[in-house]
Amino acid sequence: MTAAHCAMQVMALSGSARKGSYNTALLRACRELAPVGMAIDIYDYSDIPPYNEDVRLHGYPGPAVHFRETIRAADALLIASPEYNRSVPGMLKNAIDWASRRPEQPFHRKPIAIMGASNGALGAALANYHLRQIFVYMDARLLNGAEVMIGQAGSKFDEEGRLIDGPTRAFVADHLCRLADLVEEARARLNWQDAPSRHA
Question: How far apart are CA 168 and CA 52, in angstroms?
């Protein structure tokens, strides 16, 4: 991340509520490894109720309103999720469903980076791909290229939940720099769209 980059706020979501979650630990590591000017805030969305369209039609519950507003205000989202039954964990999918509903769903053109960690060999790959399918449908700006899929996570984190594997730390740090670049590209596009026409 160069000096030209402005401060950016990244909203981080863990797909696991487990106290010793590798994915939550990965987000904590991201806070350490983030480039200068990037602030990463891990958001607790556990109080969002199960999605019910009848409830939504009478007004969004307070936790869902706050969740949507926080997404909208963030410069980017960073999601680290395990894989449950070869897909996205229900708690995370439920929160996304609440946020994605009308009016003006906040994922539209939002820069998003997706990571995953698991004890399996594939590093939550299928959850990663399913999240990508979800956010492509909502026209988010996904960080493409090499993906952070940490397999055999028990060997990459210590007993305190610290990411200790050197190559993995370097790869995650590079991923975050690429997310910063994606945010800057989104800002530049927005500024160009908002600029008055030279021929006006």
Answer: 40
